[in-house]
Structure formats: C-alpha cells, structure tokens
Amino acid sequence: MIFHKPEPSLPRLKQVRMMDEQNPLLNLQLFSAYIAKNWNIAADLLANHIFAVISLGLAVKPALQEDLSALYAADIPRFYALGFTCPAARHALLHRGRLEDEVYARKILALICAAETDAYLRSRLIRLLRRAFNSAYLAASQSDIKHLLKSYASEKVFCESATALTDRAVYFYVSLYCSPNSVDYQLITAVAHTMIAYEKDLAKEPPPAWLTDEYQAAKEFYYQNSGEALTSRILELEQALSAKEQEHTLVAAERDTLRRRNAESLQRLERIVDEQAKKFAYELARRQTEISKLNTEIAEENQYHQELFRLREYLLQEKQPSEDERPVVSLSGLIQDKSIVIFGGAKPWRRKLREKYPEIITLNGFNQNYEPSFLQTADCILFFTNALSHAVYNKAMNYIRTKHLPFGYISRTNLDFVERDIYEALKNTGI
Length: 431
Description:
Helix content: 55-70%
Oligomer: single chain
Strand content: under 5%
Low-confidence stretches: 1-6, 17-21
Distance between the termini: 138 Å
Mean pLDDT: 82
C-alpha cells in the first residue's frame, strides 16, 4: 500500500458544528455518515471498521478483562442484544478468529456501540484505551505525532503497517472525542483512507476455508444456548415479571384508593343532599311566608287603590254648587309657612290662585315632565280633578303612596268655593 496525501480530505471539524441532535461531532456514527456523503462510501463503513478493530484489540488485553466485564455485567440483557444487533456486529473481522475471541469481542463491541449515546460509558472506555494503547491515545488527545514515532518509524509506516491496524482505529476514535478542534488533518485523512482501502480489500477476500457452514451453525447454536444467553433471557423474564408485579401492585393500590374515594364521595354526597334538603325546606318556608305577606300587601294595596279610585270618581262626578252659595273662608292663617302643591286646573284659574295665595304651588295637570321627588317637602298635595290627566295623577300618587304624604281633592272652579275645598282638605289631612 503506497502512502500519499489522499483526496478528498476530511472536512474541518470547526466548520461542521451544528446546534441540533444531527451534529456530526455528536458521535462517531454520525461523523462517519457525514463524511461518507463526499467520499462515496457506505455511511457506516468507517464507524463499523473502528468499532470492530477496537473491540478485537481490547479483547486480547488480559489486564482490562476485569474492568470490561464489570461494565458489561451492569446491564447484561441490553449489552447482549446490542452485541448482535448493532451494524458493526456483522463485520467480517469478528467472524474470522477463534470463538472465544469473538464472544469476548462482541461484549466489548456492545459497550462501544452503547457508548455512542452514553457519555459516561464512553469516558470509561476512553480511559481503558489510554491504558491499552497509550501512544495512540496521547498522539490523538495531544495532537502530537511524536508519541506515535516511539513505535513507528514514520507517519508513512503508521498509515501503512498492518501492525498499526488497532492503533489507527484508536487514534481516529480518540481524535474525535478528545481533541476534535486540534486534529492533524493530513494524518487523520490518510488514516481514514487507509481504513477504507482495508475494508475494500477485506470485502474481496474469501472467508477462511475452515469457516464452514457447520462451524457457523455451531457458533450460532452456542450464542443462542450459552449460559450468558440463557442468563440474559432469564433476566429479561425476571424484569418482565417484576414489571408485571409492580403493575399489579399499582393497580391494587389504585383500586383501594378508588374504593376509599368512592366511599368518601358517597358520604360527602349524602351530607350535601341532606344540607341542601334542609336549605330547600327553609327557603320554601321563607318564600311561602313572603308570598303570604305579599298577598296581604297586594290585597291591602288593591283595597287602597279602589278606595282612592272611588273617591276620585265621586269627586269627578260631584256637581258644582250654585253661585248663591258663597262661603267666605280665609286661608292666609292656615297656609302660612306651609308648602301646598296643587295639580291641575286651567291656566287662568291657576294664575288667579297664585296671585291671591303665592304660597301655593300650582302645576299643569297635563304636563307629566316633572320630578316627583320635590313633593317630599310638601305639607299637602291636592288634585284639581276637573283638569287633570291620568298620567300626571298616577305619577304623583305612586310617589305619594311610597312616601306616605298627605293629599286631597278639589273640584270647584269658583275661587271662593275652591278656598273652602282647600280649607276642608287641609283640615282633613291634619294641617
């Protein structure tokens, strides 16, 4: 394989930052898909290569087995399934070694794939990579090639040597997650092209002769029936059972709560019904008393109205006395310092009355545009029945009844007799 400056090169990482969940720097899978658009390769080619190579590289590090096993044991069902379902699980390198190596590599692969969306797990794996591949880690995290030159004679050797297969994958992985803004773009682009070339060559190679259908079937049988697989299934069933038991407990608790609330609601409803019944009974009795009182008042009011109307009709029908009856009555002493209001009467008649008795207020019996509240201060209100409209009369009488004001009637046109009528009406009202 000849080392050269490959084209195209990786895009500057500072230029591809995004503020959403599709940020290509969010994880290696997204970054692999991002650069694949311009390089005409499969979207997950680089990511799957790096995941598979690092998994196999860590699998042969006995010093890390305890730490890796502890991470895996934290969630066996999740990691066991992921070791077979993630895209990198189908990588050819995983199938070309010993069954023991493949089993352990799949566990590590599951951890690496889960770390793509789990920052805490990823930080734990990066610490293990630092221990296992220190030179590649330092070269990537510090962007300093001198750490690689301790193991490789030159960058060219690092990019082309078959022994650098795992170091190249670790270098790319750590570069993305530890120092994306200070990458040696020429070197990491050369590394990426070497990985692509490796994958293309690997796709052309036939599988080893010993990797027969029978052996593959045996491996499949082992994976499906291994203690780990059975343990995973048991854990899944136990989790499902636990979930059902919790659900049953919650349902039972909710049932008891609903029963208690139902009993409380029934008691509250009975109490409300009893209180409302008492209120309704009290309100009914109060309303019946009020209705009885109103009926009495209506009867009294009707009787009062009938008496007033009968009196008014009587006065309206009363005949004028003969002119030879000329009683002389002096009102001056009686109405002195009194407020007397008269409704009705012809205009000349009202003028003559005012000229003789300025203390008396006379109003047009057909003009209802007046404010009745001024009657409040009157000592007596009189109605001249021969020149008075019903509207004016009713308006005044409504106010008089409300305020219980003294009133009377006059009906004569002769001023002398009017004086007697006024005199008698005032005497009848107690003035």
